[in-house]
């Protein structure tokens, strides 16, 4: 019922197909005739997401879209959001789930100057990790050739040079836990 009302609001000419797809996607078919107010929090979250995606909008504003959802539905939501993004939709996502943010985000918002300053402090010194030398660089393309040349000139054998990209959660934890 809820999805039919929104299908009319969205002006969908043939709403049955997108409604059936939404019900299947969010495992809502057994609850298709239930009133939204009678559903659990997780089920209401599914209905809200189904409603938001029903008309395949060009812009999606989502606040904690997978909160309260089981892992299978969460995976389906992520897949749908990736499909919408691939189709050209813009998605503004607010979440405390850093793994989800890393999987779905092209960009992370915040105070860039504060983030950059903190990242620079964290990456202030090179670290030796067994046979590996980890050197933080600000301008990878410009600095790498000079560093490799200096290492080879000093007798080191350089087998590989590759960027190490920490997970978003790791960067966040470093930022909030540094003195």
Summary of the model, kept short:
The protein has 179 residues and is mainly α. Helices cover 50% and strands 9% of the residues. Strands 1-2 form a two-stranded parallel sheet.
Q: What layout of secondary structure does this protein have?
A:
Elements: H1 2-9, H2 16-25, H3 41-53, E1 59-63, H4 71-86, E2 90-94, H5 98-104, H6 112-122, E3 127-129, E4 132-134, H7 140-153, H8 168-177
Overview of this protein structure:
This protein is elongated. Strand 1, helix 4 (71-86) and strand 2 form a beta-alpha-beta unit. The chain has 179 residues and is mainly alpha-helical. Helices cover 50% and strands 9% of the residues. Helix 2 runs antiparallel to helix 3. The protein has 2 domains: 2-104, Rossmann fold (3-Layer(aba) Sandwich); 112-177, no CATH class. Strands 1-2 form a two-stranded parallel ribbon. The protein has a two-stranded antiparallel sheet with strand order 3-4.
